[in-house]
Amino acid sequence: MFKKGEIYLAKLNPKKGNEVGKIRPILIYQTNLLNDCQHPTTIILPLSTILIDNTYPLRYRVNKRDKLEKDSDILCDQIRALDNQRIIPNLIATLSYKEILEIDKHIKIVLDIRG
Q1: SS3 of 39, please?
Q2: How far apart, in whole angstroms, are the C-alpha atoms of residue 26 and residue 28?
Q3: Which pTM was predicted?
Q4: Fewest CB atoms within 10 Å of the CB: 4, 47, 107, 114?
Q5: Integer Cα distance of 34 and 44 in angstroms
Q6: Nearest CA-CA partner of 63 in 55, 75, 73
Q7: 9: which strand partners?
Q8: CA-based angle 60:64:95, to the nearest 5?
Q9: Domains present along the chain, CATH in parentheses
Q10: Quick one: CA dihedral 13, 18, 24, 25, positive or negative?
Q11: What is the pLDDT along the chain (115 residues), one digit of tens a residue?
């Protein structure tokens, strides 16, 4: 179904406090082991078109491509699991392996994972 590194739209409402909401692009972040067995939820990272420079490791910038119409920041500090029914299954874009490795570095810092 979904693959790590793919970008889709998802319904993130209702939002609470400082969470991002509305329908917006999200990055599929969980392992393909769970994606391939049709796990009912998916770990994602939301994207924002409000670009803020010098926010390492909280954000990772991706350039517009395919159906991603604007440059966007991946919000590495907004990791969440979504029910798969919230994800609109029309592929927008796919990140490169190198980009996924860079996001992994950001996430390891945000979650204090060493190694």
Answers
A1: coil
A2: 6
A3: 0.94
A4: 114
A5: 13
A6: 73
A7: 25, 88
A8: 60
A9: 6-110 (2.30.30.110)
A10: negative
A11: 899 999 999 999 877 777 687 999 999 999 999 999 989 999 999 999 999 999 999 999 999 999 999 999 999 999 999 999 999 999 999 999 999 999 999 999 999 998 6
CA proximity to 12, closest of 83, 68, 62, 76: 83
Residue 36 host element (H or E): helix 32-36
| Residues whose CB falls within 8 Å of the CB of residue 33, separated by 6 or more in sequence, listed in order | none
Residue 8 and residue 104: Cα distance in Å, rounded? 19
| CA-based end-to-end distance of the chain | 30
DSSP state of 13: P
Both tokens of residue 86? 């919230």
